[in-house]
Amino acid sequence: MDVNPAWLLFSDVRPSSSWSGVNNVEFVSLLNTPPIRRIREFGALRLLRRLHRVTHRLPVQLRPVERKRILVVAPHMDDDVIGPGGTLALHRRLGSEISVVFCAGGASPEDDRTRKEESRQAAAYMGFERVEWLDFPTGAMALHEPGIGARLAELLRDIAPDQVFCPFVSDHHRDHTAAAMGVAEALTLTGWSGDVWCYEIWSPLWPNVAVDITDVVDVKRHAIDLYASQVKGLHYTDGALGLNRYRALRVYVPYAEAFYVANAAQFVKISRQMNTV
């Protein structure tokens, strides 16, 4: 994908009500002009350097999984297991209640049907109690962040989870960033105050927590492979488990998943900083 990472970080900025005469396309075009882009890139890099310094002062703690009620926010149908699949498998072993919500629908009606069936199979295999689909347009979720936030707020109130899992806000995919911003909006709307576990998909994050998934790595492998339409063209299984193998070197186990864990207020603050020049 030939997209500047700083632009992906800030592609979800919206005009305020005072911009009512400017539509989304015009506003995005304005933000993408060379002078504005240079300002946005500078702001993004400055913020990323600051976050890098802060998080690298934190030790990566190998943390055991505890029984909880969990809501997993997945941008696409497969992100639920590619990212935190091993940790979720450990949660199910302990009897944790896991609900998964997929934010984006398929790219076409046929793709949507295929991927939803795959997500049902993966959820049944993993033992997830509840699966929801929001069906926002894939590739264009950044245009729907308020709507995503409102729908996620409804689920937060209904499920009342102890923990929320979602991508980190700087993940190198615009839909993943939009999902994280939607979570931040939902937390603001509801006042929910648990811990947010940010997981890795397209971009390695700066972790403060690792979970040893060695005992369930084959469960994660099979769960990813159940998304047959996705692994057919791209080797997501090898890539995800390769990252888990690499992450494990830091904590001296065979396989580990890495997370940035923050309380709700901290997550909202980081997300807002990422969305502001």
The percent of residues in helical segments reads 40-55%
* CATH class bucket of the largest domain: Alpha Beta
Please give the order of strands in the largest beta sheet. Answer: 1-7-8-6-5-2-3-4
Q: What's the number of helices?
A: 12
User: What is the arithmetic mean of pLDDT?
Assistant: 85
Topology-level CATH name of the largest domain: Rossmann fold
Q: How many strand elements?
A: 8
Number of domains: 2
CATH architecture heading of the largest domain: 3-Layer(aba) Sandwich
Counting helices, strands and paired strands, the structural category is alpha/beta
What gross morphology would you assign? globular
Please summarize the sheet with the most strands: 8 strands, mixed
Describe this structure in words.
Strands 1-7-8-6-5-2-3-4 form an eight-stranded mixed β-sheet, with helices on both faces. It is globular. It has helices spanning 5-10, 24-31, 34-56, 79-82, 85-94, 109-126, 145-159, 174-190, 217-225, 228-231, 236-251, 264-274; strands spanning 61-62, 69-74, 97-104, 130-136, 163-167, 195-199, 209-212, 256-263. The relative contact order is 0.16. Helix content is 51%, strand content 16%. The protein contains twelve helices and eight strands. With 277 residues, the protein is an alpha/beta fold. The protein folds into two domains: 5-56, no CATH class; 61-274, 3-Layer(aba) Sandwich (Rossmann fold), CATH 3.40.50.
